[in-house]
Specification:
Length: 171
C-alpha cells in the first residue's frame, strides 16, 4: 500500500513540475508556422533586424545572395561545358595519334572511351565550385527555414532574378 501511495504522490509531483516548468519551456520551442516577425535572426543573433529599414536590408541581402548563388550555378555549368569540350578535343588528338592509312581513307578514327583522367587544372576548380555552390545553397536554405515569409519571398525573388540574368550562360 505504501508503494501505491508513493507512486501516486510522484505522479502529482510530476504534474506540478511540468505545469510550473511550462512557461520556461515555451522559450525553447520554435513555432513551425510561417510568420512575419520583424526581428527574425538570419544566421546569428547579431544579424537580427531591429527596425523596418534593417529588415529591408536583410531582405535585400537575401535577394543579392540568391542572385549570386544562381550566377555561380550558371558559371559552373558553363565551365563544365568548356571542360567537356576541352576533353573532347584532347580525345580527338589522342585518337588522331592512332590514325592509320585505312582509317584516313574513310575519315574514321578510333574512339577513346572512359572518363577523363584527373587534371590539376580542372578537378580542383570543379570541386571548389561545387563547395561554393553548396555553401550558398545551404545559407539560403537556412534563411528559408527561419519560416519568415519575407525571407522566403526574398530568396524566391533572388532565384528568379538570378536565373533571368544568368541562366542562359549556363547552357
Amino acid at each position: 500500500m505504501d508503494h501505491t501511495q508513493s507512486s501516486m504522490s510522484n505522479g502529482s509531483d510530476a504534474q506540478q513540475v511540468s505545469s510550473t516548468s511550462t512557461p520556461d519551456n515555451s522559450h525553447a520551442t520554435m513555432a513551425m508556422v510561417f510568420q512575419w516577425v520583424l526581428e527574425t535572426p538570419i544566421y546569428s543573433y547579431s544579424f537580427t533586424p531591429k527596425t523596418s529599414s534593417q529588415y529591408f536590408g536583410a531582405l535585400l541581402f537575401l535577394v543579392l545572395l540568391s542572385i549570386i548563388y544562381r550566377a555561380f550555378v550558371a558559371f559552373k555549368s558553363h565551365k563544365e561545358t568548356q571542360w567537356a569540350h576541352q576533353e573532347q578535343l584532347r580525345k580527338g588528338i589522342l585518337a588522331g595519334q592512332f590514325h592509320d592509312e585505312k582509317a584516313s581513307a574513310d575519315g574514321s578514327t578510333r574512339e577513346i572511351r572512359g572518363p577523363a583522367p584527373w587534371n590539376w587544372r580542372v578537378d580542383p576548380a570543379r570541386a571548389s565550385l561545387s563547395v561554393l555552390n553548396i555553401a550558398l545553397h545551404y545559407l539560403l536554405m537556412f534563411a528559408v527555414m527561419s519560416l519568415n515569409v519575407g525571407y522566403f519571398f526574398a530568396v524566391l525573388i533572388g532565384v528568379f532574378l538570378g536565373d533571368l540574368l544568368f541562366a542562359r550562360y549556363g547552357h
